[in-house]
Model the fold of this input.
Amino acid sequence: MKIIMLGAPGAGKGTQAKMIADKYSIPHISTGDIFRANIKNGTELGKKAKEYMDQGLLVPDELTVDLVIDRVAQEDCKNGYVLDGFPRTIPQAESLDAALEKRGEKVDYAINVEVPDENIINRMSGRRACVACGATYHIVHIPTKTEGICDRCGSELILRDDDKPETVTKRLNVYHEQTQPLIDYYNGKNVLVEVDGTRDMKDVFGDIVKILGA
Ligand code: ADP
Ligand code: ADP
Ligand code: ZN
Done:
């Protein structure tokens, strides 16, 4: 099962993608997590990506596409995967489709998690992230057992540099301009499904499972 998560920054793509990956035993591939791991490890890619991420801009396609195409060709992706944060531009989607087509494969579902812009700033200001394991929490909606500590791996949580309200506004604009057109793109390929992302995390997941099948 090859799944793509679509939705605004903060819509809950990562939260749902992790639950999908656990339930269906497929890898969760988050380009944001890959970039943040590279930044943490001080790699060349990390240095380049950070310049864009801190400004709320997209990392250029040249630095992003090959990374993902190589990743989904790996052995553990044989039975499928859930892509979170990729594609984010039409050229990225076209590159992915072309690479899959060469292997006789295709995207099965593009799940659009719908959350209005009004809710996004609140979601982002309360978001806390674990860079060690990729888990994400919310100080009000999805709190950890111990404040500031990851339930899953015990590492300290961070407030992402790009979750400041001014940067979030910029990221929302970038989303509407560059990423939202993917909704029509995947609708045209008859793989688009939509869920109401304003519902409780578990209810959103229930809706997704109804679509994917138990
Ligand atoms: P969010 O969870 O808020 O949607 P991500 O963690 O997916 O954010 O991404 C954080 C940042 O990483 C983006 O704002 C962008 O700068 C960069 N990024 C992640 N994925 C991509 C991509 N597919 N193309 C370009 N930039 C990306
Ligand atoms: P994305 O990957 O789309 O940027 P995240 O999964 O990181 O979004 O979620 C953004 C923030 O909203 C996080 O703080 C997360 O804990 C919280 N969140 C996710 N899903 C829900 C939900 N259904 N209701 C309330 N808050 C949520
Ligand atoms: Zn963790």
In short: The longest strand covers residues 109-114. The chain has a mean pLDDT of 96. The chain has nine helices and seven strands. The longest helix spans residues 165-179.
